[in-house]
Amino acid sequence: MDYNFREIEKKWQAYWADNHVYRTVEDPSKPKYYVLDMFPYPSGAGLHVGHPLGYIASDIYSRYKRLKGFNVLHPMGYDSFGLPAEQYAIQTGQHPEKTTVQNISRYRQQLDRIGFSYDWDREVRTCDPDYYKWTQWAFIKMFKSWYDNSLGKARPIAELVSRFEESGTSGVDAACGEKMEFTASQWNAMSEEEKEKVLMNYRIAYLGETSVNWCPQLGTVLANDEVKEGLSVRGGYPVEQKKMSQWQLRVSAYAERLLGGLDSLDWTDSLKEMQRNWIGKSLGTEVVFKVESGEKTKDVTIFTTRVDTIFGVTFMVLAPESDLVDELTAPECRKAVEEYVSYVKKKTERERISETKTVTGVFSGAYGINPLTGDRIPVWISEYVLAGYGTGAIMAVPAHDSRDYAFAKKFDLPIVPIIEGCDVSEQSFDAKEGKMCNSGFLNGMDVKEAIPAAMDYVEEHGLGHRKVNYRLRDAIFSRQRYWGEPFPVYYKNGIAQVLPMDRLPLTLPEIDEFKPTETGEPPLARAKNWSYEGHPLETSTMPGFAGSSAYYLRYMDPHNSEELVSSEANTYWRNVDLYIGGTEHATGHLIYSRFWNKFLYDLGYVCEDEPFRKLVNQGMIQGRSNFVYRVVGTNTFVSCGLKDSYQTTEIHVDINLVHNDRLDTELFRKWRPEYADAEFILENGEYVCGWAVEKMSKSMFNVVNPDDICDTYGADTLRLYEMFLGPIEQSKPWDTKGIDGVSRFLRKFWRLFYDGDRFIVTDEKATPDELKSLHKLIGKEQEDIEAFSYNTTISAFMIAVGELADCHKREILEPMVILLSPFAPHIAEELWHDLGHDTTVNYATFPEYVEAYTVENTCTYAVSFNGKTRFTVDLPKDMDKAGVEQKVLSMDQTAKYVDGKQIVKVIVVPGKIVNIVIR
RNA sequence: GCUUUGGUGGUGGAAUUGGUAGACACGAGGGACUUAAAAUCCCUUGGGCAGCAAUGCCUGUACGGGUUCAAGUCCCGUCCGAAGCACCA
Question: Which nucleotides of B are covered by protein (CB under 7 A)?
Answer without folding.
Answer: 3-5, 11-16, 19-20, 23-28, 39-41, 56, 69-70, 82-89
